[in-house]
Amino acid sequence: MVPYFLILILAVFLVYVGQQTGRTVSTFAWGTTFVLMALFAGLRSLEVGTDSESFARIFLASDTFSYVLEHRHTGFVLVSWLTRQFTREYLFVFVFFAAITYACYLRAIKRDSIYPTLSLFVFIVGGNYTYPFNLVSQGAAMAVVLLGMEAIYNESFKRFFVYVMIASVFHRSAIFLLPFYFVVIQKNVTTHVLILTSGTVFALFFDRFLAVTLPVIAFEDYLHYVDWRTDAVGLVSTLFLAALALFYLVFRVRVKAYRPEYDKLLNMFLLGLVIAAATAYHGLAAGGTRRLSLYLTMSSVYLWPIVYKNLTNSERIIFIATFVPLYLLYYYMTTNAFGDVMPYRINPIIW
Questions:
Q1: pLDDT at residue 24 is higher than 90
Q2: Theoretical Cys-Cys bridge with 141: which of 167, 195, 235, 242, CB 3.0 to 4.6 Å?
Q3: Who's near 106: CB < 8 A, 6+ residues apart?
């Protein structure tokens, strides 16, 4: 766990220094953060990340351009095919793909967060940094979707459509976000209530909904998850999301600065909670349909800075004293429990 805490400390410290200094130092700090995060992810061993070995095999099979057109992970296979022109070592495609993914994430945080340091902290400890270690293609898709938040803030469906289409090149599941756009942009408490009430009904019939819709929208990749059930799958993390949602809802009355953005982000988070809760209720596989909620619940990366902005100075001290330890505990627990990212091992070619 030590390497993961080190990358957290270094990344947050560098971005904090960058935010407190001039443009030249800031550029260097963000650039160094990007290099550290991309290399730490890209230089990992195949033993780090449940699906890492599968993506290494995809890379080795990407020797013809026709394979790119035939494979469902089009974005990853395209990058693999380009990399294969120069090397057969999977290490390089992992580094290249990590660079694409974290460049998008860091660009989105730097551009759209009111407190980038806090957003980066939440991004890492919330599990979003290590998701691409396992969910390689979807991690890149999520990064592009986070870039698309500016389209939601500006209420431009055309721009959001472009972002989603680009994201879908990496992972087709991103397409399901399109209809949610019209819910997310609503800026009133009525929408929050409707999401929760209608979401409760939706959750009860979630498995039937998936059985009908997944084949229609060409998500056959997920169809087998409808029949793959276990007990209390994702229950702890779902309860954590529910607790966060309750806090965000209660805190809404305190939000004066950035209220429109807060409402949109809260809509996203509640939609993600509905999907996560439906998955847990039906005991559906956490590795499948639950992944769809990740696109939406990562709105916490921007929600927490708005919460912080609307606190008094004395409240901020209490906030930091409780928020940081609790999230660090969550980071420790989830990193150990999910995605087979523990222990961290470097690629044997390097060490």
A1: no
A2: 167
A3: 30, 33, 34, 37, 120
